[in-house]
Amino acid sequence: MKNLMNFKSVLLSTLVVGGVFFTATSCAENKVNDSRDVAEKENRANQATDYRSGNNTTVENRPVLVINNDDDAQFLMDAAEMQHENISLSKLAQQKGNSEHVRALGKMMVEENSKSLSELNSLAQAKSIAIPSSATEDSNDFYKKLNEKNGGDFSKTYSKRMVDQHKDAIDLYEKAIKATEDSQIKAFATSKLVTLRTQLKKAEDCREKSNNEK
Q: Residue 103: how many CA atoms within 13 Å on its side-chain side?
């Protein structure tokens, strides 16, 4: 009887430890599978391939990898991350917005960001640069927080996020225009600045209306 109880104790301990290990492993796998992380790993792999193919130089007889378009890659990844978030949050705004101006902003953001994202995907493919294919973990975390809100709180939080996102996007695109030597990326960023500024104005109008609602 005593041996049976000992066996059950050992078995229970094994199951508990195994469960903790499985949970930790699952969390780690989810982290690795973040769309931003996946894109960055693919870009690093491509850079390593360039190095093995001879796309390198030497400094004091030491081989040094030349990372072409690294700033461009970061820009395209950042831009894609923002657009995926804008689309996912704006789809939610169309569903949960309790005001016409919130739903209208959501509709406009989904349509225009989807178009820009399609163009961005084509540009990234042409440059052999991997970009996030879906919303990142950080974006999904904010989505969950926003989804918990309703009514006026939802409208205020969503419209504020759109204002902040577009201010950050304008800053990102302006810096990319100055930094890049790629004519296609410069042309893309320049053309989208007009759209971003228009979207910012509409987001600010929506935020003002949402803040004034009782």
A: 8
CB atoms within 10 A of CB 14: 10
Burial of 92 (0-12, 13-18, 19+ CB in 10 A): middle
Question: What does the block give as tokens for 75?
Answer: 């820009």
pLDDT band at 86 (very low <50, low <70, confident <90, very high): very high
On the question of pLDDT at 58 being above 60, the answer is no
Segments of the chain assigned E as strands: 56-59, 62-65
Q: Are 89 and 157 in contact (CB under 8 A)?
A: no
Distances (CA, A) of 24 to 21, 28, 157: 5, 6, 32
The three-class DSSP label of residue 214 is coil
Tokens of 61: 């007889």
